[in-house]
Each structure stands twice: as C-alpha cells, then as structure tokens.
Amino acid sequence: TLEAPRQAPALTNLTQEEILAQLQKGIRHEVLEGNVGYLRVDDIPSQEVVSKLGGFLVPSVWRKLMGTSALVLDLRHCTGGHISGIPYIISYLHPGNTVLHVDTIYDRPSNTTTEIWTLPQVLGERYSADKDVVVLTSGHTGGVAEDITYILKQMRRAIVVGERTVGGALDLQKLRIGQSDFFLTVPVSRSLGPLGGGSQTWEGSGVLPCVGTPAEQALEKALAILTLRRALPGVVRRLQEALRAYYTLVDRVPTLLHHLANMDFSAVVSEEDLVTKLNSGLQTVSEDPRLLVRAVKPKETSSGPEIGDDDPPEVVPTVPGAEEARQALVLSMFQVSVLPGNVG
C-alpha cells in the first residue's frame, strides 16, 4: 500500500529560523580525508526555500566544499523533494558557460509540460568541472533525487555508486475513491527526458549505478574510486617517462605520448578499467601487442606494505662452481640432436 507523501508545513506559516531548522535536518556536510567534500541531502529543497535561505546556504555549507578536490553527493536517504529544486543542484555542478536543457516534466492534472534548464547564474561559485563528483544511491533513493542522479549520469558529470534506485515518481497525489474511506495514491507527473523526447527514463526501472555495491558500503567504495582517480595524472606521467626512456620503436613514441595526454579517463572506476583502457589504446596506436601495462599489487616489507612504481628487481642467476653441476645446468637448458637428413 502506498502512502501519500509527507506534506511539509506551508513556508508562509514558518519564520525564517523555522525554515532554516527544517532545512538543516535534511542537509549535512563535511570535508573527509584526502580533501574530499561530502554533502548529504535527505530532502531536495524547493526554489522558494533556496531563494529565502541561499544567503545562508552558500557561505555556511557550499563555500566550505568549494576548496575540496572531489565531491561526494550522498542521496542514499533522499526519498523525495521538490521538482523546483532540481535546477539548483544541477547548476552548481555544471559549468556556467552554457545553459543546458536537462529535463521536461509532464503534469497530468494540468496537462502541461515544464522544461528544466540549468541556471545562467548562481549565488556563489560553481563546482569546478575538472573535479570528480560521485553520487551515492540506495534502493530507497526516490523521486526528485532519482531525477537528479539520472541527469548527472547522463551529463557524464557524476559517477553513480551504490544500488539501483527505487524507480519512483516525481510527484504523487492521494485521491479519495468516490465517497468511500479508500484512497488511491497515483503518480501525477513524469519525466520525459531532455527535449521532451518521450524515451524511457528512470521511472519504473530506477537508475542503475555505474558501480554497483551495497548502500552501506557505497561511501567506502566511492572514496576508493576517488583515490584511484587522484592517482591517474601521476600514472600517465610515469608511463610517458618510461616510453621516452625505454621503448625501442622510437619513431612511435611521439604518437603514443600524444595519445596518453588526450585519453578520456572519465569512465575509469577501477584498476581493471585503467589497465584495459591503457592496453587497448597503446597497443592500437603502436600496433605492437608486446606493449603491455599491468597493475602490480602492494608488496609487504618489514615496515609494512610498500607501493612500488617499478617491477621487482631482476634476479641474476648464479653459475655453480662444480663441473658436474655446470654440465647439469647446461643440459637442462640445451638439447642437442641430429635429425634425419643430417639436420642439426
């Protein structure tokens, strides 16, 4: 049985302090280890709330996250919110040099459609497009939060980590059936997708994560992904140095260096992804199947785990001193015979 969505008190009946207290219950933020910003939103605020409290939200919440190197947007506990709040969250994560049409919403009772665009201007600053964004989801992430997740995924602006979302509805309405004591809760609005194309979106099926993991482990997985992505520039730089110094097909080195410098790593979320992408690209460009990248696991030392950038040192074989041992070594390495036809 579906219940009608919880109705918040009308803003006109609340003081600014009461609105602020209500908003703070649904928004939490902090800076995690590795300079990763963490923003948990449990209820998407409306345009009216943002307009009234933007002067507080920007300096007290958003500005503290601006200096971080990556951002985790936690929507695992967000089961709904206001459609009018969608442009604000998307716009702060979208570069300001373009205005983008991100969704079209159809409302059945009024038989109208509303286009949702990113905002040409925002209060404060936008989050840099060069920084990674991860959205955390669970099987309870619903409604407006799903639409935000879907839009950021389609924009290739965020990596979605967690569980498939609930596949709910943007807006629900509780209707009495005749004069009875029975009520029917039905979706009255739906997302048509960008430009109103009418193609299937997330409603009913939910949003699939880029990296599936149980919701309670999603933050840990997201931080591991961000650690890997933070290391990518160094990995590429060391690969370029190795190609310059060691690769024997010298004439192909400039092309390989150019390819590495222009590779798109936006979809890389694991060491396996990285190795596969590098090997595919480098071998295609060089036409050399021997050019191979592999991941070396950390090795244990007496002082603890050690991360090495290079292969283990080469082991130089020793030649035994005894004549019999030397002969045995030679015989184990070489086999000599004369084949029919006097062929050696």
TrEMBL record:
The protein's name in its UniProt record: Interphotoreceptor retinoid binding protein
GO cellular component, one term: cone matrix sheath
UniProt KW keywords: Receptor
Record GO terms (molecular function): retinol binding; serine-type peptidase activity
PANTHER family: INTERPHOTORECEPTOR RETINOID-BINDING PROTEIN, RETINOL-BINDING PROTEIN 3
UniProt keyword Secreted present: no
Organismal lineage: Eukaryota, Metazoa, Chordata, Craniata, Vertebrata
SUPFAM superfamilies, sorted: ClpP/crotonase (SSF52096)
